[in-house]
Amino acid sequence: MTNNRPYSGGGRDYKGGRNFGPRRNERIRAPKIRVIGADGRQLGIMTPYEALGIARKSGLDLLEVSPTAEPPVCRILDYGKYMYEESKKQKTHKTTTVKVKEIKLRPGIEANDFFTKIRNAERFLFSGNKLKITLMMRGREMEYKDKGFEAVKRAIAELSHVGHADSEPKLMGRNIGVSMSPLPVNQRKLKFSQDTDEMPEDDSEDTE
Questions:
Q1: Which residue in 75, 113, 129 sits closest to 208, CA to CA?
Q2: Are 72 and 173 in contact (CB under 8 A)?
């Protein structure tokens, strides 16, 4: 019996429902395909048999890159190198997850403690993390909110070589808070620490 099912591309095994990814080489079943050469040039429309012959002469593979096009588009390439590059892209994507770190300040923080916090914050931003700065006020300290805002703005200024504030600092209950994002990688610099220093713990668990 003749199979009249239209060509739909892809590498699905209809019996088992499994997907083997893009079709390549002899698994490409379309009657005609549009072929792109290894150098990116359009080679025209031909049969998969003809395209595979061209690929084999160069020791390369034929990969279906756009199965839903009319006709499907296939590319001549080094399949092993292609898969390696795709794997690298996926690993890079997985390692670029942005984390949010936090430092907590107090209105009367000592200079040494302040710069310890700034040094830690610098490491967080330099490593590509977002940063939350929280200044906590208790009791009558609320009467000196202006000094609290000054301290937060000073922290932002001290970190301007690695990050920038996402907005103006805001009063939230008894806390003044602001978030910072890292600068682009090629613009970040270290001023208070070394790139060999260990990553410090943040203050997110500190309730003091």
A1: 113
A2: no
CATH of domain 12-92: 3.10.20.80
Q: pLDDT of 133-178, one tens digit each?
A: 999 998 888 888 899 999 999 999 999 999 999 999 999 999 999 9
Quick one: which of 57, 56, 64 has its CA closest to 82? 64
Q: The tokens of 120 are what?
A: 């830690």
Domain 100-187 adopts which CATH fold?
Translation Initiation Factor IF3 (3.30.110)
* DSSP assignment letter at 24: B
The domain ranges of the chain are 12-92, 100-187
Q: Are 62 and 76 in contact (CB under 8 A)?
A: yes
Q: pTM of the entire structure?
A: 0.54
| Number of neighbouring beta carbons within 10 Å of residue 62 | 25
Residues 194, 28: Cα–Cα separation, whole Å = 54
Overall residue count recorded for the chain in this entry: 208
Give dist(CA 8, CA 110) in Å, integer: 69
